[in-house]
C-alpha cells in the first residue's frame, strides 16, 4: 500500500500522435472495417480526453513505445491489433513479473480481494526518486542540501534536540569526573552540539594509524586527512589498537555513560517512528546508539559540511539534512505499510490488557472496546495482504477458495461472537446490533466508499470513467441480494400481527384515536405458527438461493463472459521489467500470517463483544447508530484506503468494485452463513429487519445504480453519494433504540 505508491508511467491507449505504431490493414474484410474503426475512434477520443492510467500498481493502459529499430514486426502487428481491442473491451497491463501479473489480474476478477500494494519487491530502478530517498541510509552526502532551517528540523529541536543535547552535557560531566573516561567526556561534549542541531553535519569514522607508526611519527605530526595539526582528542595513541574493549575508559563508559544515552536514543527512536513523518530521526537515533556510541572516541570525527570537504578516507556514519519527510506514509517494512507495522503492538496490548485485567481494575470497558476495534484495522490489513499473496502465487482454484473462505472472516468473526454472547445472556440487543452492522456495511459500501473515492479522485482528475458493464453485473447482483435478504421482512409485514407495547386514547373516546408506542409485528402468534410454518422456511430458501446466485455470478464473470473483465498481460514488456519475482511473503508464510491474524481477530472480536454491553446500556446514542457506523465501517478501513489509492490513480473501476463486492458478499455470503450458524447454535438472530434498515438499503442500491448508469462520474456525483450517506447516518442517530435494547 505504501512502498509502491510513487506516480506511475502514463500511457494512452491510442490517439492521434501514434507515429510509432504502424497501420495494419484489417484482415477480416472491408465490411467490418468501418464499423470497428468508428467505434474505436469514439472510444479512443473519450479515453484521450480523460488521459487515465491504472496507476503505479505496475499496470498501465499499454501502447507500445519501443523504437522501430529494436522492435520486431510481429510485435508491432500484435500491438496494433491490441490498440483498438483495448479501447473497446480490453485492458492491457504490464507487470514486473508473473506474480504481480497474477495479482493485477485477480484485482479485476469478481469475488477476489482488490489489493493495491505490491506482493513482490519492486525493482529499485523502477522506483521514483522520492521513494528511493525514503529507503536510503543516513550516510549519503549531497552536493547541496539547501537550507537546513525547515519546519521539520525546528520540530525536532523542540521535541528531542534540546533535552537530548542537555543529557549529553550531563553525561560528559560525569565522564570527566571519572578522569579515566575523559576521552568519552570530550566525545559526549561534541555530540551534545551535534544532536542539538544535527542537520548539515556529518559524523565520520576515521582510520587510526598503527600504534608503532603513530609512535614513530611523534606527537606533533600533522594529520594526513585534514592537512593540518591533529586535534588532541584525535591524535593517535600508542594503546589505540591494543584491545578497545579492555580499556578502563571503555569499561567506565559502558557502565556509566552508554546505558543512559542508549535508553534516551531508544525513546527517541520509538517516538519518532510512531510519528511516521519523523522516521529519519528514528534512523538517526538508532544508528547513533548502535554505531557511534560504540566506537573508540579517537575514531569519531564530527564536522560541518560547509566548512571543509569530506576526507577521501573514512566511513560516513551519519549525515542528515531533514528531520521530517511527509512521504513516509509510503514507507513499508517487508511489504507491510508503516501504519500497519505501528498498529501491530496495539493488538498485543489489547489482548494482554483484555484478558489479564478481566475485572477492569486498570481500565474500563469503554477503553477496552475502543482498543479492540482499533486492533481490528491492522489485522484486517494483514488478512488482506495474506489473501492477495496466496492468490497471486497460486492457481485460480486455490485463489478462489482462499478468497471465499477468508474474504469475509473479519466481519463474520465479530457477528458470530456477538450472537453467541447475546444467546448466552438472553439479550436480543446483540442480534439487533448485528443487523445494524450488516445494514451499515451494505449502505456504507454502496454509498460512502465509492462516493469518497469519486470525491478524492475527482480532485486530481476532472472526469473519471469506469467499466459500466462490470458495474452493471454488481448492480444486478445487489438488486437480487437486497430483494432476497429483505423478502422475509416484507413477508412478515404483510402477514404478521401488529403488537404495541402501550397505547393511550388521545380523544377519551373509545372509538377515537390511539397513540401507541413500541409497536412491532409479532411472528409468534398462535405458538409461532406464522414464523415456523412460513417465515422460517422462507429464510432457509433465501439462504440457499443467495449463495447459488453468487456462484452463478462467479461463473458468469470468470468463465462464460470473461470479456467483461478482459485483462491482458502484455507479452512485449517495457524495458526494465525483466525481473524475477522476489515475493514479500511466500505462500507458507502468508498462510501462517493469515491463520494467526484470524486467531487474533477472533480474540479481539470476543473482547469487543464482551465490553460493548455497558456502552449499549449506558450510552445515550441509539444502538442503531453504533451498529451502522463503528461496528460496520471500522473493519472496512483497509478496503477504503485501497479504494482511495485506486481512485487517485484514475482507476475508479476497482474503487467501485471494492464497495460493490463487499456489499454483495454481505447479502449473499455473510447473511446466509449467519443463518446456517443459527441452525446449529440457536441464537436470537432472525432475518427480519426493521423498516429503517429496509428503506435505507433499498434507497442506497437504487441511487447507486442510477449514478453508475453512464460509466463516468466526477466529484459532484461522489459528493451526492457521501451526503446521502451522512443523511442516513443522521436518521440512525436520532432514531430510537430498537426493541429489546
UniProtKB/TrEMBL annotation:
Domain (Sodium/calcium exchanger membrane region): residue spans on this chain: 367-487, 590-732
Record-level GO BP terms: intracellular calcium ion homeostasis
Subcellular location, principal: membrane
Domain named Inner membrane component: residues: 151-201
Keyword match Ion transport: yes
TM ranges: 154-180, 255-281, 336-356, 362-384, 396-417, 437-459, 471-491, 538-558, 590-609, 621-641, 662-681, 687-708, 715-735
Localisation: Endomembrane system
Membrane topology, as annotated: Multi-pass membrane protein
Annotated Gene Ontology cellular component terms: endomembrane system; vacuolar membrane
Gene3D superfamilies: NCX, central ion-binding region
Keyword Transmembrane: yes
Segments of this protein annotated with the region Disordered: 1-37
Keywords, in A-Z order: Antiport, Calcium, Calcium transport, Ion transport, Membrane, Phosphoprotein, Transmembrane, Transmembrane helix, Transport
GO molecular function: calcium:proton antiporter activity
PANTHER family in the cross-refs: VACUOLAR CALCIUM ION TRANSPORTER, VNX1 PROTEIN
Protein name according to UniProt: VNX1 protein
Gene for this chain: Vnx1
